[in-house]
Write a structure and sequence with these properties.
Length: about 350
């Protein structure tokens, strides 16, 4: 069968190649791949920046934002042929740390976790794949066109969970949320904020294309002014930073109102230096009892929460996040720049 593969940490090796047919082990589902989303992580692996092949192998099958349909399932697994499913990305340590042992493998302490399509386990960008029943999540059948958005939705489901946990240090009834960035993560963060009944604002530098309309159709407000100007006007209770852009991250650190919670979800490239007033930032955080947290990856709790959020969303709105669909055989094209686009998907 055909799959999108790469030699990790070797630029220029991205290709659609022949790989062996998967054979399900005990307790595993055999799944017909429908689609995978392409994100910055995939592009970084393709560029040779990181990634690890399975032990004893040269090439890694890419793809961690999965979507497939069950072809066969073991008795008692809770799944049946025809079910729409997504595979969980991360697996806990072989000798679990305390967090992994409690199902919180997104909070792994020692880094010995593995990840489908990223670290030591093949991903989902193939015509067929297998997944342990315990690491598969069923989706509403209505999400057949957009279910590959579940994995990025889990990232923001976890972010909102962490915000709410931190907020519970004291009385916390947030009303206003600011999301910086209107890419897939930012838009999905805004969706979950609206579903929570918050007044949601999204900030992005793009002035045309689909982003402003998508935000408006959520019932949220779209801004293109600076973070500091928007934050000064709004005094948001919650800030979710979803760009990873250095200046935006720095500005987001002081963007919340009193007792605000700022959650950083964008991964920033190292090496860029900025000058800013650390003393003023520290003073504000301390005197206003603010909190700044980082959040990455997701566990099964977040996958289930994400699946519920997508099931409640307007499917037509979700479809509009996917701005480019590329067939598997042309997969290399999906890694080219798409100015003005939001989400690229590989059709398997």
């Amino acid at each position: 069968m055909r799959a999108l593969t790469v030699v990790p940490q070797t630029p220029g090796t991205l290709a659609v190649t022949d790989v062996d047919e998967p054979v399900p082990a005990d307790g595993e589902l055999l799944v017909d791949g429908l689609a995978v989303g392409v994100c910055a992580t995939d592009r970084e692996i393709a560029a040779g920046e990181y990634g690890w092949a399975p032990p004893g192998r040269e090439r890694l099958v890419l793809g961690h934002e999965s979507l497939g349909r069950v072809r066969s399932a073991p008795d008692g697994s809770g799944f049946a042929p025809g079910d729409l499913v997504v595979g969980v990305v991360r697996r806990p340590d072989p000798e679990p740390c305390g967090a992994c042992a409690r199902g919180q493998f997104d909070m792994c302490r020692n880094g010995r976790y593995t990840e489908r399509g990223i670290k030591a386990i093949d991903g989902f960008a193939s015509e067929r794949w297998t997944v342990e029943a315990d690491y598969a999540v069923r989706l509403d059948p209505a999400l057949a066109d957009v279910g590959m958005l579940l994995e990025p939705t889990t990232v923001v489901a976890k972010a909102w969970e962490q915000i709410e946990l931190v907020g519970q240090r004291a009385w916390f009834e947030p009303k206003v949320a600011l999301v910086t960035g209107a890419g897939p993560i930012g838009l999905l963060a805004a969706l979950l904020g609206v579903q929570r009944g918050l007044e949601v604002h999204v900030l992005d530098r793009v002035t045309d294309g689909p982003k402003p309309e998508l935000v408006a159709d959520l019932g949220a407000d779209y801004h293109t002014d600076s973070v500091s100007d928007v934050a000064h006007a709004l005094r948001p209770d919650v800030v979710i930073e979803a760009t990873g852009a250095t200046q935006v991250v720095v500005d987001a650190l002081s963007a919340s109102g009193t007792y605000g919670v700022t959650c950083l979800t964008g991964v920033t490239s190292a090496g860029r230096k900025l000058l800013f007033d650390v003393g003023a930032l520290n003073r504000e955080i301390v005197l206003e009892n603010d909190a700044i947290i980082g959040s990455v990856n997701a566990n099964l709790t977040h996958y289930r929460a994400g699946a519920e959020a997508l099931a409640q969303a307007d499917v037509d709105w979700l479809r509009r996040i996917v701005t480019r669909r590329v067939p598997l055989e042309d997969a290399v094209e999906a890694f080219a720049s798409d100015p003005g686009g939001i989400k690229t998907v590989l059709e398997l």
